[in-house]
Structures are given as structure tokens and as C-alpha cells.
């Protein structure tokens, strides 16, 4: 069977390699770590989670929850490893960061159809190949991809990661366990602030010193992963309507909703490391310690990793790629992951899954399966390839890009659930027909 090259062993690349290998193809998976590390990577394992350890909502009423369930039906490596290493996070699927990456790495390295080649790739590979070098694509590979397309088709934005702290350094006299609206188990540590504390915090956050980031300007910040200090500059109450919103939480000491709340979520299975939810930042490290220690429950917090900021690079995909993430000119060259304009861990995995399934079909002389915009995975592919889009920006999966119901359903949650069930029924029927054909 023909060998397919996959460049990059992140979430998208590992998923693509797995899907191809499971279909009997030989896969050469290229990964530059540990020989060369990007500014945001810290370990040698594959599928490293460089920002949050949360894969977000896991309910079918949530579009990313639907996407997860679709991926489970498609035998997703990333989803099976995430489910196996999950940590408690209310209605979200969060994972033990290092346990997850270690499991993905082990399964990839032990697959008989996958050979891992260490070292940086600096030139575009010959087809068939899937390029999944990620939003932190090296300069050399970025130049190679730009030359391949022959135009100024790259865009870029900046992305930021939240800091991590030790659980034992959190003052639980000033905090409590709860999930918003008491959904699921009490998996978050909630750190309340009154109005005076919040106002002082926002003032210091606005004036804190930022790390040097070449070319950084507020308008270049991707709205879905905005640094907390940028939010603070946008208005006094921006944080209270964002990551510090107190809605659905009651302080057990007062029985009332606090003025503002900082939520902390487990970052590993042991529960000894927590991250500040929504607190992506690119402040200087001493400033992070100074300002975030103004949160009453974190006055003595021990930071095991400070927030970092890095450049994310992505293609102007609508003019370049088809609904299967393949080059419109040469469909045996495909791209996957955040570099295609999907945003988020699960979305990156989905792009790798679809790119690989489609390439496998093409290599076998078949048409790629049409998941259609009735499904979340199909809708994402159609979004990144929609040539009517004039100002393309990365986007998370959402029900707005999935086909609406042909009938009315009362209530948003009920409507979303009906859309999700229709998508899963469609996907199951598609897979059943495929199995009958083979």
C-alpha cells in the first residue's frame, strides 16, 4: 500500500496519521520535536496541549460536544485518548495534560503502519501528503508553504496561554468548589472578588508591563483567545462579562452571587495543578505574579508555569482548500489543524480526521465521503472552503454553520439537541452504507 507523509505530530497530524494507518496505509509521520522546539512547546510528546487542558463542552446541546461525538463514531484516536485521561471539569471534557499526550504518543509509535521520523521538514513534500505543522509552523516551513501557493496567502494572529498554579498554594478560606449552575460535579475552584478588589485588579491589569512581542497590536489579537489584559483595557466590566463572570455561582459564605469570580480548573489527573480559566496573557512573568496575586485566594499562589504568547499562522483557506482540506489544484496535498483556520483542539482533530479519510478514499480511486453541512465535521470543512467569504478568520465549531432544522423546536437547548441527533443519525447511516459496500 502507498505511503502517505504526514508533517507534524500535533492533534491534527496524529489524528490524520491514525486514520490513514487504520485504513491500511503506510504512514511516515514527521515531527521536529525534540530536535527543535517552538516557543510554546515544553515536552517531547506528540499532541501537546500548549494552552488550556480543556477540550470544552461535552454535551450534545453544545456544537463542540456534537463534534466530539461524531469523532468518536469515526474511531478518533484523539477522542479515545481524551476520554481515557479525562479529569473532572463539570460539563467540560478536560484531560490530564501530560497523560493525554503520553497516551497519544504511545499509540502512534506502536502502530505497525506508522513510522516516526524525527527532524524539521523545511520543504513541501511530494504527494500524497498532509501538512499539519500547526499555528506555530517554523519559519522555514512557512516560507515553503507560501512559495508553494505562490501568493501572499498567509495570515497570522497572536494566541496566548494561561498560567498554572499549585493546588496547595490556593487559599481555600477565600475560595470554594462548585460548577456553574451546579451542573455536574463541583470541579472548579472559585475565587470571589468584591467590587473594590475587582476594580483595583482591573486597574493594575491595564497598566501592567507586557512582554515584548514583535508586531503585537490589539487589533491582531484573535477574539477567541484574547489576553486578559487586553480585555481589561476594553472596559471596566469586560472581564465580569467574560472569564470573571459570577453568573450561576453563589459564595457559600454569603449565599449570594459575588461581584466577580476567577475560576480554576484541574490541569492534571492528580489534581495538584490548576489553571486560571480564561486568563491567557502575555504579561511579563514578574507582572503576572504581582497582578494575579491580587486575587484574594491567590495571594500566596505558587506559579509552576506563567502565561505565554506566541504567533499563530493560518492560511487564507477559502481560496486555497476544498471541503476536504485538500489543495484545490492537487487534491493529494492536504492541510490540517489550526493552520487551515479551524480554531480549537477538537476542531483541529476533526480537520485531520476528515483530511485523512478523504485522502484515503481518493488514493483508493473513490470519491471522498460527503458528511455535508448537516454534521459538525462537514460544516467545518465547508466553512474553511467557502469561497464567498471575503474576510476569513479562524472560527470554532458552532450551530450557526450547521444546517438548520426543517421544523420548529421550542427552546434553544432542545433545538440544538435535535440538530445534534440528526447529525449523528446521518453519520451512522453513512458509515453503515460504507461498511455494506466493503
Short description:
The protein is an alpha/beta fold and 438 residues long.
Q: How many strands in all?
A: 16
The overall pLDDT, averaged over residues, is 90
CATH evolutionary superfamily of the largest domain = FAD/NAD(P)-binding domain
Derived from helix and strand composition plus strand pairing, the structural class reads: alpha/beta
| CATH top level label of the largest domain | Alpha Beta
Q: How would a textbook summarize the main sheet?
A: 6 strands, antiparallel
Q: Which term fits the overall shape?
A: globular
CA radius of gyration: 22 Å
Helix content: 25-40%
Unreliable stretches covering 5 or more consecutive residues: 214-218
Q: If you consult CATH, what is the topology of the largest domain?
A: FAD/NAD(P)-binding domain
What is the architecture of the largest domain at the second tier of CATH? 3-Layer(bba) Sandwich
Helical segment count: 11
How many domains in all?
2
Terminal CA distance: 17 Å
Report the order of strands and helices.
EHEEHHEEHEEHEEEEHHEEHEEEHHH
Amount of beta strand:
15-25%
Widest sheet: strand ordering? 10-11-12-13-9-14
What do you see in this structure?
The protein is of the alpha/beta class. It folds into two domains: 3-157 and 312-437, FAD/NAD(P)-binding domain (3-Layer(bba) Sandwich); 164-307, Elongation Factor Tu (Ef-tu), domain 3. Helix content is 31%, strand content 17%. The protein contains eleven helices and 16 strands. The strands form four sheets. Strands 10-11-12-13-9-14 form a six-stranded antiparallel β-sheet. Strands 6-2-1-7-16 form a five-stranded parallel β-sheet, covered by helices on one side. Strand 4 and strand 5 (92-95) form a beta hairpin. Helix 2 (63-73) runs parallel beside helix 11. The longest helix is centred in the C-terminal third of the chain and has 26 residues, at 412-437. It is globular and about 65 Å long. The relative contact order is 0.16. Residues 214-218 have low confidence and may be disordered.
Amino acid at each position: 500500500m502507498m505511503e502517505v507523509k504526514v508533517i507534524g505530530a500535533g492533534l491534527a497530524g496524529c489524528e490524520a496519521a491514525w486514520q490513514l494507518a487504520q485504513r491500511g496505509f503506510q504512514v511516515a509521520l514527521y515531527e521536529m520535536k525534540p530536535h527543535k522546539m517552538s516557543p510554546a512547546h515544553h515536552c517531547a510528546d506528540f499532541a501537546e496541549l500548549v494552552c488550556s487542558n480543556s477540550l470544552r463542552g461535552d454535551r450534545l446541546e453544545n456544537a463542540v460536544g456534537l463534534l466530539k461525538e461524531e469523532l468518536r463514531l469515526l474511531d478518533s484516536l484523539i477522542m479515545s485518548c481524551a476520554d481515557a485521561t479525562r479529569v473532572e471539569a463539570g460539563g467540560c471534557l478536560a484531560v490530564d495534560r501530560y497523560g493525554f499526550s503520553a497516551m497519544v504518543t504511545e499509540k502512534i509509535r506502536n502502530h505497525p503502519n506508522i513510522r516516526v521520523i524525527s527532524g524539521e521538514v523545511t520543504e513541501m513534500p511530494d504527494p500524497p501528503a498532509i501538512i499539519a505543522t500547526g499555528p506555530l509552523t517554523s519559519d522555514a516551513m512557512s516560507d515553503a508553504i507560501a512559495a508553494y501557493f505562490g501568493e501572499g496567502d498567509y495570515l497570522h494572529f497572536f494566541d496566548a496561554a494561561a498560567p498554572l498554579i499549585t493546588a496547595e498554594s490556593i487559599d481555600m478560606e477565600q475560595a470554594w468548589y462548585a460548577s456553574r449552575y451546579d451542573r455536574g460535579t463541583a470541579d472548579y475552584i472559585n475565587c470571589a472578588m468584591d467590587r473594590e478588589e475587582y476594580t483595583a485588579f482591573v486597574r493594575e491589569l491595564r497598566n501592567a508591563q507586557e512582554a515584548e512581542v514583535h508586531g503585537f497590536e490589539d487589533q491582531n489579537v484573535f477574539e477567541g483567545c484574547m489576553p486578559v489584559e487586553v480585555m481589561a483595557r476594553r472596559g471596566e466590566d469586560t472581564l465580569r462579562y467574560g472569564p470573571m463572570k459570577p453568573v450561576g455561582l453563589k459564595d457559600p459564605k454569603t449565599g449570594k452571587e459575588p461581584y466577580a469570580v476567577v475560576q480554576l480548573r484541574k490541569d492534571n489527573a492528580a489534581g495538584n495543578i490548576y489553571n486560571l480559566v480564561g486568563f491567557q496573557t502575555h504579561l511579563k512573568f514578574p507582572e503576572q505574579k504581582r497582578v494575579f496575586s491580587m486575587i484574594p485566594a491567590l495571594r500566596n499562589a505558587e506559579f509552576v508555569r506563567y502565561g505565554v504568547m506566541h504567533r499563530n499562522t493560518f492560511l487564507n483557506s477559502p481560496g486555497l482548500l476544498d471541503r476536504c482540506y485538500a489543495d484545490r489544484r492537487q487534491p493529494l496535498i492536504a492541510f490540517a489543524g489550526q493552520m487551515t483556520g479551524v480554531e480549537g483542539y477538537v476542531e483541529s482533530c476533526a480537520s485531520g480526521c476528515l483530511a485523512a479519510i478523504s485522502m484515503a478514499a481518493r488514493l483508493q480511486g473513490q470519491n471522498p465521503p460527503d458528511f455535508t453541512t448537516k454534521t459538525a465535521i462537514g460544516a467545518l470543512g465547508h466553512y474553511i472552503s467557502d469561497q464567498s467569504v471575503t474576510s476569513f478568520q479562524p472560527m470554532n465549531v458552532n450551530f450557526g454553520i450547521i444546517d438548520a432544522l426543517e421544523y420548529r423546536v421550542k427552546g434553544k437547548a432542545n433545538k440544538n439537541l435535535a440538530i445534534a441527533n440528526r447529525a449523528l443519525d446521518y453519520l451512522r447511516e453513512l458509515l453503515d452504507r460504507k461498511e455494506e459496500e466493503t
